[in-house]
Each structure stands twice: as C-alpha cells, then as structure tokens.
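Listing 4. Sequential folding, example run.
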Amino acid sequence: MSFLQRLKGRGVRSGDKLLSSDEEIALDKIAQLDVDVFQTDNMIVVYAQASGADMSDINVSIEGDADIVLIEGRRLRPENLAFPKKKPDGAFFTEECVWGEFYRRIILPESVDIEHADAKIKNGVLVLILPLLKAEEKEKVKLKITKAKRRKRM
C-alpha cells in the first residue's frame, strides 16, 4: 500500500477493505507537518517546518480545482553525523524530535496558478509560493437554464 493510499484510507476502511491492525498502527506514526499560511492580494505563501528532510524526500502536489496542497515526505535522524561507522548500543533518555513520514493537506481559500507555483527549501523550512489565478484565468462555467414544469394542484 503506497503512502498516499494509506493517507486516503485513514480511519477504519481503505476503499472496500478494512485496514489491518498493522496498517492502522503505521498510520498513527505519520506526523502532521506544521505550517504557516500567508495570503496577499496576489499569492499564498506556505511555510512548513521540514527540518531533517532532504528536498528529494519531499513531494508537493496541488489537487482539486488547484485549491488543495498536499505535502508529504520523511525526516530521518542524521545518526551518521554522530556515528559515522557504526551506532553503538545505547538508549535515548529524551526523544522530543519527530522523525519519519509526515504529511499535510491544506485547503486553500482560492485557486492557484499551478504553472507559476514555486517550492524552495532553506535551513529546514519549505516555502511554497503559490500565485493566485487572476479573475480572467478562472474557468467560467455556464449553466443551462431549463423551464420548470408546473405542478398540478389538487
């Protein structure tokens, strides 16, 4: 089961199949990414704390009517910096950092211009710059109007 399928299957069911207890436990280990979302007249900026994640470990997609952002990835504890050869036996006496898989789904207040969206990472902060669609770029949908039939009175 892929990462995204697990996210969509949050809860008791995944599609028509009940999740096994192992799959439910795995879902509990996926952290929600902390974000700040800022909006101006012409753009939305998302700041996400992704410390410990490499850009190649992060996937960002824009879904729906270009108004939903999904950020998913993983953060790995950089143990090779402390133990370049082999990690010795031992145990943590304090663990406060969140490591492993993460995700965040953000429903935006307006549709964004996917073609001009940008993503950057610096000092462990992922920054998404999402220009808003201009009014003339938004797709117009014309509704067909039909004449309602009169209901007979009794």
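-- end of first protein; second protein begins --
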Amino acid sequence: MELINKLERIVLGWVKNVPHLPATGQKWLGVNVWWIALIAAIIGGIWFLFALNGLFSLLTLLSSVSNLYYVTNTYTDYAIFKAIIGLVFLGLTVAALAFAISPLKDRLKKGWVLLFLAWIISALSIVVSAVLSLSVIGFIISIIFGAIFLAIGGYFLFEIHGQFAHPTKRAKKV
C-alpha cells in the first residue's frame, strides 16, 4: 500500500500544473465515476470471456492431429504465452474496476485507489505487450498510443482525486 501512496504522490506532482476541468465537470465526474467503472468492468469482462474463448479455440486447434502438421510449435507456444499474459493483465484490471464500484458509490478513497491500481496495471500491460510484440515498429506504436491513452485516463483520474474521502489517522488504543 505504501508503494501505491508513493506513486500517487509522484503522479500528483506531475499533474498539479496541467489545466483543470471546471469545478462542475470535476464534480459530475466524481459523482458518476462509479457507473463509468461499472460499464468498463462489464465491457472488460465480456472482452475477457471472448479472449478466453479464443485461447481455448487455439488450444483446440493445436490438439487436432490433422492440423498439427501445419502449425509450428514455436509460433503457437509464443502466441499461447502472449494470450495468457494478456488474460492475466485483463483479469486483474477488470477485478480492480469491479471491486472499485461499491466504494466509488460511497465516495470512499478506497474506490479511487482501486481505480488508480487499475490504471497502473494497464500501464504495466501496455509495456509488457509492447515488449512481447518482438517488433520495433510494434513496440514504438504500442508505447506511443498506450502513453496517449494512459495520459488521458490519468488526467481524468486525478481530476477527481480530491473528491473522495481520505481516511483520517486515528490514534491507536492501548
């Protein structure tokens, strides 16, 4: 948790000088972010199921004796590896979004932290998938577009940062 707080402070330092949304826009976004997270979790869950179906289809194709001759093991093993890595990142992101919905409704800091965690997982996913592309052009394109989408998501995420209840530190009872 300390790492998340440290990353939060670092990113807050980055976005403090950027132009901000009007107060009404920030308030609207803060109040309605829970259903935006709900829609993102539902779409991500559906995407996860389709990707899982695709992985199972690939495994079924590989298990077919008649098609095994036409498929090289190196390519298919790597494709399966990339698919599993992508599914893990997608599952973690969807889980973080799904767990964030209820605290976001109550406007608790925990909900915002879970959104931030989903944003960090997405950033890691972009970097890992860019590296696993094994192509210089693919790497560059993935990093550029990934950075653009992360910047947009991070901007809106940190626009609502102050609207969620920060827990106060309580004295420990002895």
